[in-house]
Amino acid sequence: MRVMKWSMIALAVSAGTSQFAMASAQDDSKGFVEDSTFSINTRALYFSRDFRNEPLAGYDKVNNKNKSRAEETGLGFNALYESGFTQGTVGVGVDVIGLMGLKLDSGKGRAGTGLFPGGSDGRSQDEYSKGGGAVKFRFSNTVLKVGDQYTTAPVFASDDSRLLPELPQGISITSTEIKGLKLEGGHFTSSVAQNQTFHDSLGLKKTDFVGGVYAFTPEVTGSLYYAKTEDYFRKYYSNLNWTHALSDNQSFALDFNIYDTKSEGEGLQRAYKDRLLPLAQQTKLDNRAFSLQGAYTVGAHTFTLAAQKVTGDGDYGYGVDGGGSVFLANSVARSDFNAEGEKSYQARYDLNMATFGIPGLSFMTRYVTGSGANTAATSNGKEWERDIEAKYVVQSGPAKNLSLRLRQATYRSGDGVYYGSPSIDELRLIANYPLNIL
């Protein structure tokens, strides 16, 4: 799962209002250098997990003992250069990505948050880096990209919940030639994990996907995707979203998501036994995972209710196809509530302080409860999670766009639904500073 959830409601609103412009983007190209952009996002992250004196068995394998706490701090740099496209019928350009993570605070007894690569001595590495580039081609409003690139498709989405994001390698194509319709597809053969530097660190052999988003009206959008991940599974995904303005300061939104997943080939699945090294095991997946959420906004306040259910054989499986490939309402900070047979419900409240004269300041709290989970530990597992978040984004001055975020999560399960760990208190302090150089 990930900290940064892709909001399908936000994407749908954007799709419905923009209607995907018909004018040819390539005709408006100013040139390779003239349209170039270069940005560096700096992220400082303090990450603490307290297992409440009920440590995960085998967590600290190097020291051959259980660990009741993991706590580390790091600094990450994400540099992205995106050239413009050369002029002409077919434009050519390049993207270059550079990523570096630095350890600020850790220790042999506190390592294991997933921020850094781990060494054989049980300590986190002091620094690590990765990067790559892609060549891109544009014809009219269609872009073909070959190489290292971030992905956001609901069946293949790179994760960005630690210091540095996952970085997949492959081919993608995106087209907005038809008004109201966005089509995309991809062929990816490897991906670098968030806390690793080698290309096969997620165990991905090959993923192929195709799909799109269509704005039926400015208020209604739908999407449909298909993906096949070699030796793991095939997936179908569909979404339907409706947003409606009730008045100048009131609106209502409904969002429905469904995944249909079935094992393919060897039927492998990723088992994060020690939370750091993904291990492959054979499982049988033949399930549907769906969620429905409704959000009512009035002034500064947004009230959200959501329900989610998994039916069929196995959990909703993801991870090898990107840690962000879980566009379900109850996939939250700590748990996804995605176990076999599990049903879950969420209540959430958001407060935007701009209405009260403090733009950039917001608060969020939610509670999710799940039951009926069928796992190796229980046939009727129960779990719950409470999340609290405060965020402030600087609005002006030298530190404009600097965001400061505090996230706290409390997770409990007497049945050990989540990786066998019944109790987790998690705290993240995140500072992001995006700097646009070009």
Describe the structure.
By secondary structure, this protein is an all-beta fold. Helices cover 3% and strands 55% of the residues. It has 1 helix and 24 strands. It has an 18-stranded antiparallel barrel. The protein has a two-stranded antiparallel sheet with strand order 2-3. The protein is globular. The two termini are 32 Å apart. The relative contact order is 0.13. This is Imipenem/basic amino acid-specific outer membrane pore. InterPro entries: OM_porin_bac, Porin_dom_sf. One of its GO terms (cellular component) is membrane.
Q: What is the SS-derived class?
A: mainly beta
What percentage of amino acids are in beta strands? over 45%
Q: Could you tell me the number of beta strands? A: 24
Number of helices: 1
Please state the average pLDDT score. 89
Low-confidence stretches: 2-20, 273-277
In CATH, the homologous superfamily goes by the name Porin
The name of the CATH architecture is Beta Barrel
- What is the distance, rounded to the nearest whole angstrom, between the alpha carbons of the first and last residues? 32 Å
Determine Rg (CA atoms, Å): 22 Å
Classified by CATH, the class is Mainly Beta
- Our count of domains comes out at 1
Q: Give the SSE order as H and E letters.
A: HEEEEEEEEEEEEEEEEEEEEEEEE
Shape: globular
* Portion of residues within helices: under 10%
Q: What is CATH's topology name? A: Porin
Largest sheet: 18 strands, antiparallel, barrel
